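Protocol step 4 of 5: obtain the predicted structure for the target chain.
Materials: sequence only (see below). No template structures provided, no constraints applied. The aim of this step is simply to have a reference model before the mutagenesis design in step 5. Sequence pasted as it appears in the construct record:
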Amino acid sequence: MRTTVGIVGAGPAGLLLARLLHTAGIDSVVLESRDRAYVEQRQRAGILEQGTVDVLRAAGAGARMDREGLRHDGIELRWAGRRHRVDLPALTGGRSVTVYAQTEVCKDLIALQLEEGGPLLFGAEALAVEDAGTDRPHVPFRHQGRADVLECDYVVGCDGFWGVSRTAVPAALSRTFERTYPFGWLGVLADVAPSHDELVYARHDRGFALLSMRSPSVSRLYLQVPAGTDAESWGDDEIWAELERRFATDDDWTLERGPITQKSVTPMRSFVHEPMRHGRLFLAGDAAHIVPPTGAKGLNLAVGDVVTFARALVHRRETGSAELLDAYARTCLGRVWQAERFSYDMTALLHRAPDATPFEDRLQLARLERIASSRAAEADLAEAYTGFPLD
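Step 4 output (structure tokens):
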């Protein structure tokens, strides 16, 4: 099998890249080791930056997002019983975010790819990326019990942290930067309308909490818990009681309870692999970088990567110049490290470390007070939250 761009992984990065290439008239093949049902049910982040929303619309994949997604013009910070709303458009020249689950993004892109695009092979396990340093890279894979090889001009690895793509970069050329956190997020889905119409980020002496949503009738909520926590060790009433403690305010706001339908624990880590390119292999999304979810950057960073690659390849076709392809890693990493910085800062601002001292507690409160009292500090948060430029 031969194509121009071989895409390993059918998460949002791989699927969006296939769509961008299709609209530009460039052929591709997507290999995904899981089946379609699994891909369409993976629960992941649901906050889309303004730039991501714009890209999906421009790619013809925004119709259902515009109907069902929830535009948010603000977030709320809570600490010590206080509430402070950050007005995103007022601080960023009109930018906002949209709540629309990654599962729904994938469903939309899968439907478009199967109807209009090139081959999208589910149950196709990529075994390696070979000869990435040459102009004839190829991907041996297994599909429906048969061995095959995908020959490409370029390979884009969108197969996540545990995929095979990153291992194709020679160890002598690789550098990794990583931080693991001593806590995770206990996340629950609940059949109850959200208790607030925007996301609420709460700092509490007992730990962080986040109020989010999947729809007007389904809430998504998170609690900071120790790393390695078993989600099932928390009872439903215990979860609601802890959420109420951490979201408590000095006014009459109340948290509405409902049936909890799903529990899981998300570990927290920061990770960057450099370089993001080796020869004709380009890494994108979680294959190259991971951020703690506090900054809502994971999916959006992946979008930035594949937009950068697609633009560079179109530029190569139209001008014959490889300048933008050669700049891929540098361009992406500039955005990646800013997102890593912001995600780390948000995590440090709102989570309480197990060994936190009273001095560190006071610093967190002082930083929150600064955001609430300084337009410059508030604007810095809003600009990063709504997204770094894709240009």
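Step 4 remarks: DSSP finds twelve helices and 19 strands in the chain. The mean pLDDT is 96.
Proceed to step 5.
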